[in-house]
Every structure is written in C-alpha cells, then in structure tokens.
C-alpha cells in the first residue's frame, strides 16, 4: 500500500539550487555587513581592519551558499556551488558598474576565481552532507 506524502508542492523556483544558494549568500553578506557596521559604530574597531571583515564575510557567505546549492542539487555540488559563486560575482560587478561606474581591472578576475573556488568547495561539502 502506498502512503501519501505530506509534502506540499512548492514553486519550482523555490527549489532551485542556484536561487537557494544565492539567497543564502546575500542573506549572509547582509547580516555580516550589519554586524560589522555595528562593531565599527559601537566599539573601538579601526576602519583599517574593514577589508579583513569584508573578505571574511564574503568567504563565509560563498562557502555557505555553495553548501546550500550543492545540498539542494544532490549531485554535482562543485558545479552548482561554482555557478552560485559566478552569479554572485556577476551581481557584484553589475552593481559596481551601475552604481559606482567602475572600470574593469584585474581584481574582479581574481575575485571571480576565489569566489568560484570557495563556492565549489562549499558545494562539494553540501552534496556529501545531503540526505541520501
């Protein structure tokens, strides 16, 4: 006898590994940025240490987003994680270009390589911690 599942059907976009990963990346970056702003405002933390916080927040967000994307996908975690990193970099580049009129330099290419690598590592761990 077959049992009925209790899962409610959800919209396909909500189950997308890439969108789930991006949501986690953006949420982590937002919350980390707010926490850093609070630290700068209410402690004696120097603004000179801000780049370290920025790199740390972005790195943690990319690993977490890749992990979620890989876990959601259930296979090819490196691919879904890496694509999540590439989407994040594209979003940052578009925002930088439109909002701040930045030009292309070497730094975005290095950021793309690092972001893709960190997200891919997160995706590999996500697949391996998923339900089987």
UniProtKB/TrEMBL annotation:
Keywords: Membrane, Transmembrane, Transmembrane helix. This is TIGR04086 family membrane protein. InterPro entries: DUF3792_TM (IPR023804). The keyword Membrane applies. It comes from Salinithrix halophila. The chain crosses the membrane at residues 21-40, 52-70, 77-100, 106-127. It comes from the Bacteria. Pfam families: DUF3792. The keyword Transmembrane applies.
